Fold these 3 entries.
Entry 1:
Amino acid sequence: MHLDQVIEIMVQSYRAGEKVVRLHTGDPAIYSAISEQISRLKMLSIPYEVIPGVTSGFAACARLGAELTIPEKVQTVIISRIAGRTPVPEKEALGRLSKIQASLILYLSAGYIDKVVDALLKGYEPTTPVAVVEKATWPEERIITGTLNNISQKVKQAGIKKTAVIIVGQALKGIDDPSSTRSYLYHEDFSHEFRKGQWQQDKKILHAFADTVKRPSATGTVTPTLLVFLGEKGKKVAKRLYQDLDTSLELLSFKELKERQILEKRWNHISSIIFISACQIAVRTIAPYIRDKYLDPAVVAVDESCRNCVCLLSGHLGGGNELAKKVAGILGATPVITTQSDVLKLVPLDLWAKANGLVPADAKGLKDAQAAMRNGKKLNVFLQEDVYAKKLPPGLVQTRKEEDAQISIGPFIPQNHKCLHLVTRNLNLGTGCHKGLSPDHLLEKALSFIGSAHIHPFSIKNVCTIDKKEKEPAIVKLAEYLEATLRVFSSEDLNRIDGIEGSDVVQNAVGAKAVSEPASLLCAKGGKLLMGKKKFQACTFAISSNPIELCSDLEGSAEK
């Protein structure tokens, strides 16, 4: 029927009191000719409602399992057609649209496949993926895939001339390589209004565990150990320790501790506390403030008669056991250590990890591994690339297969998610960016680059760049976020690194042929480039690694 016939039936049925459904295939918003129908209904004061459907282009994508908007690749979708019996405005010609290199859905064009390919080759590469879907979602559906090089021949051989959509673009590569990109929305390190990124959730524990951590006071200096006494006899013991203990001490009475609200105000910045009192008094005093074994200060209690010196809190990571031994040595007391690994004379896994600069990605996993060792179980350890050990502590056995490991050590997030990941801080992130680049933009691109190689963010020890970018806000924020040291190099130093592909644009802008790769390599002490330069919008990144040799005891590791 032509338009007048269609409208006549709609009007007659409406005036007869019937409900009228004008059914279109696909979605009414695209190539459906509903505008002229709506215009007639309005003229006749007949009410209407448009019910959305599924257009064949999106139905075809569903059948392909394709997403048309892929992070870092394409964020624009164009729906169009080639000029046929119905003309297309010259400004919308396919040759012009192809130069955007967006994801492209073409309707009403399969019968002109040669003409389509010729137009698209003005902007797209010949190897660009193409899919032609005939009668999407119908029982007789057919799907033809290829590239702009060969799709025309394939479509002709299949005899497809109509009732088909053509989908073009690099996004179609995601069908065969779904791991090539990650969305920000579901990335474990990306924060938004509903969720803090995993990296932000874990950062406090990771930061507290790292061997470089200091507990700064409000003034930026290291907080002294609090030496708290009760009564005159306790004061004499405290003064003795004050004179002989080789650490910075702050002498306080219990009264001062309470009246000045020292623990309320400074708990997060206290490195350790020594109580000259009964254990019960010390426990009741600190109980309201205890939060986490990775963050709480070491707490030791010694009785006024100097018979026993008991470690109450943070025996391993906070250094409480060692502090108890020191205090006991000065006073002639008996150090009372109750941590099970020490009682069983095992190398404590957490202290061994800390001594070697290894940071647990999962606090619970570390506790479970320590419990298994205390129960006499031997754990398989996988050493990732650039991590070496001549000997491991008793209870740890090296394996060459990560899938067999209970512990994986290195910068890469293990494929075996059940094993404990001990992160090495041995990677150097080289970066360069345009002046005035948004800090959030650089941070997002950095996390995308790091995540694409399944690298844990905390493994980045240094952020490296050219000295001209030392105060660039985006780079400064990136180093702060990663808890990394910002290291800068002169253009002369960067240009001395051989084998780097340079850029005249970069050379003219900053005086160095390249920034990210050579800066990263200058931070690598005998190391190598782990990930070569990758360009993003207005920024570049590269990663190098420093080999690490693990010690079997608590003396600490050394970078080769």
Note: The first helix runs from residue 3 to 15.
Entry 2:
Amino acid sequence: MPSKPGRVITFYSFKGGTGRTMALANLATSISRRNGGRRLLLVDWDLEAPGLHRYFRPYFKFESQDARDQEIERHIGLIEFLAAARELAYTLPGQADRNILLDQVFEKLDFTPYLMDTELRGLSVLKAGKFDKSYSGRIAEFNWVELFDRQPEFFGALADYWAARYDFVMIDSRTGHTDISGICTCLMPDTLLTVFTPNRQSLEGAVKMVRQAADYRVNSNDLRPLRVLPLVSRVEYNEKILNDSWRRGDRKEDIPGYQPAFEQLVKDIYKLDECDLTGYFNSAQIQYVPYYSFGERIAVVDDDATKGLLGWKYKVFSEIVLSPDLPWESDWGSLDAPPTTADRVWDAEWFAGRRAHAQFIRHPLLPGAPATHPYREVCASPMDQGRAYSRISLRDAWNAVPTLTPRAQAKASDDGIEAEFVLPGRDDREYYSMRQNSDWYSTRPLMVPRGHRHISTGPLFLGIAEDLMNCCWAYESLGMDTDTLIRFRVRHFGLKSWPLRILVYGYEEDRVSTVDAAEAEVEVALGQAWDRLESLVGTLASPVVELFQFTTIAESRLADSIAWFQRKDPGV
């Protein structure tokens, strides 16, 4: 197990029709879209009524997109994986502990064939299974009780196996009180996210299952704490009186109120004297939007003002999911304020203008000429803040970046500041520009060993790290919130005919690229960039090194380079 295993989150609802699967798909997509190297596994454990895969139908990667539905239908999934694991588990003598099951069962299985990768960053789906004529029979014949009786630690070991490989494992559970729902709510998760609608049957069923899961955890040998996150769904904001009655309770109308119900449940589970979930439930509610009653659409991808703020609500709740805090520990209500400005639009036209200006600086007589040296271009934009800064503020932020000020002085430009620097003894130039809305552009040559004509992986990793952190340090100096989501688009160009020098079995080998450019993109919260630097650099560097005869990144080499940068960096 890693020192910081991923989180296993079960999505449960007592009844269908609560929007549980829709919530899972939207929250996972929201986390993926702000991915800083996170890996997400979505598991459809609602075997009798599988549907999670339908939300990701447009995003699955297949060689033949024309046969998409046939590919989805025949792809194996959870039930086949569990059947293979069960066969290995039954060969073990007695009731094996978690570590033995992890080593002798799950580590021996190749998990890759069961997965369906998507175009969403870091997100894979484990669908329920292969949907052929035998599917329903295989589901009915799978004896969950027998498996638990013979190997009680089987599902705990499975949770450990997934948590070691993914930052988030999100399980779509069966409804009601069944063997499968008990496994998903009691045995698998460290976080139980229960989705309910404001009616007595849905609320009481959810509360009962949460209490059952908490009681099981207390009396088991599972030492993981259980985090409970209730989410009220399909809320109709137009019915203000009923909305308030079902939230806080109404004795006259014999309405229990979901907030006091969960406040009492939380006090009982966590042994608290007091619990106030007002701020939490200000944010932990999903409104009913008729538009999303049709089909399986992901609101955080295509939501706009004409369809309400459903996508925004999921983004708000994803902040709660990402946080380690318990529902009563933070002032979650501050998250619920809608954005004062629309999400920033990626201004491709502005970045293209900066690129053209940088080309002119490199080749004033031939501005369209190709680069004579490998270059890296970084485009960055804070996607959820709309403030404008003065040029003086931008200059001061520039001067606060320790690796930039010694090289070049900023000057005013038509829409912000810019700086350029000629490398001593060479014609290569660095160019930087920061716009008053805080868009960032930079282009600079790759670090090449003095006197040589080849690229090395170490300097490549270091250069990417430095360019990312230069931008982040400038943004921090501007006083941006640490939660501000930064989108980076990094392009390497001028690579054609340049060799990449790597070590192969202790010998240096040069691999030449026949392709000129590679591009990649990441998003990361400003305050998390430093801690996630290694994964960010790995994501951005992989498309580059692949051009050199399909080279892959050696993780140890990447880790050593980033560790060196973090030790030597003048900003630390």
Note: The chain has two domains: 7-336, 348-568.
Entry 3:
Amino acid sequence: MPMPYKKKPPLGQLLIENGLINSNQLKEALKKQAQVGGQLGSILVDMEYITTEDLLNFLSQQLGIPSVNLLHTNIPQDVLKLMPLEKIRSMKALPLSIDENSITLGMVNPRDMLSIRDIEFSIGKKVNAVVIPATQMEAAIQSLMQNPGIALTGEGIAKEVRRYEMKKAPPLMALLKYLAGSPATDMLLTAGVSPSIKLGNDIKRAAMIPLTPADCERYAREIMSEKDWGIFNEMGDFDLAVTYPEIGRFRVNLYRQRGSVSITLRRIIDILPSLKDLNLPEWIRDYALLPQGLILVSGPAGHGKSTTLAAMVDIINSSRKCNIVTLEDQIEYLHKHKKSNVNQREIGLDTKSFYEGLRHVFRQDPDVIVVGEMRDPDSFSISLQAADTGHLVITTVHASTSASTVERIINMFPPHQQNLIRSRIADNLLFVLSQRLVPTKSGEGRVLALEKIVNSDRVKNFIREGKTHQIKPQMLSGTEEFTPLEASLAKLYQAGLIQYEDGLFYAENKQFFKDLAKPS
């Protein structure tokens, strides 16, 4: 009785079983194959999950057929003449060498018996099929089309492969690996320009051709499930988080513009910076470990406020046994549970808004409440209530100076409530930081300059009396409770960390900075 035919597992499963790729990589490659077509092996090579050599060796072992790397092969012109170019293109079969009785044929699919028999009949010789990668076959065909009538060389095919790589958008995984290994925080993928990274406040574009709308849509569909894609098409924008174990975790925002998809990818960092790493003073640690009060961090967008909050949360998490609840518009840093429980809630995913998250926060029994950004009077009123009732509240506010941070909050409220709010802030405030990230002199990053107000008795009186605007003029020379931004900038300049022009640019009081810096 004949043995039943046992179907061989598919290529992807075999590669996993042999430890050449993992299941997540196969899933991503199959998703891309469903979107753009092509051979799975070549897609895995394009996505840098497997090398060409490893793939060829594996295919050769599995098929029992030799493999050939065209990048190391020269094919004489008289051998190429054995097959018309149209047949080479349609069959994906390339004559490599010939002897008295047989022809060696490089094929993308060496088990295509119909093509093999057709070639044997037309040439009159036995075909010895060998396997070659689909990408190298396409490069060889392009080279033959552009240079008809001449021999093919491995060097020429390699040039064509590189030209092909330059013409196509890079694999998403390659872009994510680049972002994860760079000092950039974000990557921007938009049709009409090449992939860009955000370094500080500047965009740096990759040296490659612009992305097409099809490229951006392909990236989006690699990232999203079919269900997410349907919601995105209906809504026009979408937020999600993706994790690739070999690369890292990323926050993704997708939106439509001019009829095409644009994508912003932000790397979520699990290595939390220390106060020293951030150029923040050590006295912050003492305040961050207090059981009750209000801490405010201000500054323009993109100047490190969220990072400062993350550093303070890590100090508490490492030192106190307490319950921390954070409300974040985008989670940029993942906190592991250390001595504390850290519950990170993302706006739009875990709760509708900062206000909605704060409205229910007391039911979650928090000791520390961290609010990514204070945007409305209702949210701030709840935060003040929390600080009043024995909680530590840490939050950020968009404001240009430490003094204007307090005034911005007070001005959120109607005039008849402002005196009460002043009094409550004066009673609960611990300190205010106003931050600026200034380009370093070397041009290889940014360094933190800050202005601080510590809530001393004198500062409390300024706040209660509505005279916060007088804090800087009356304490300009610097005191324990107040350090002007200009003093921090001047110190960085004198230490050789920043350019004089950059210090002057960020200084609010230009003349005061000039007096302190005294450039040579």
Note: Residues 1-6 have pLDDT under 50 and may be disordered.
